[in-house]
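ok posting inputs for the zinc ion job
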Amino acid sequence: MAPGESTPEKTAPQPLYLVQRLVNSVDLETGEDELGSPPALHDWLVERGLLAAGEPVTEADLDRVRDVREGLRAVLLANNGLPFDDQKIERLDQAVSRADVRVRFRPGEDPKLVPDARGVDGAVARLMAIVAAAVQQGHWDRLKACPREECEWAFYDRSKNRSGRWCQMEVCGNLEKARAFRERRRAATA
Ligand SMILES: [Zn+2]
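and the output
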């Protein structure tokens, strides 16, 4: 799947979609990456209202955002029942350590979590506040990553019992079934 959007039934509601969209900014199968350079990351974040146009983006920012992206993918795989990748989660934890959030109070509004950092750290903080809100609202575990190793595409599971497993049953589900079949046959003839 080329980096980008998902079909509507696999798309998370806003603002959680921003998190899904970050994870899907690279196609692991082809290596095509929307965040290929600091300027590309800058434009990607500005386009989504996560960064002010004048804010700089460095190589280190890009490394950090990629750690966030792959760490989130590891969490989404765990949401799909796969074991935690401790190393990736640790790097995620480190990458978000400067992305501070605070509670903001405004008359006539519910208190809410907002970024308390600038630049790319502020953008990451905004995404983390979205994750925290989704956890609290009880739909974080619907955001999953496809367990087919070459795919790991992020999708939103709208099924009633939250049992959705594949980004696309017709593609990854069938490829995995074929692989399992080949492996069983190999094991039987061995
Ligand atoms: Zn898939």
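notes: The first strand starts at residue 101 and ends at 104. Residues 10-141 form one domain.
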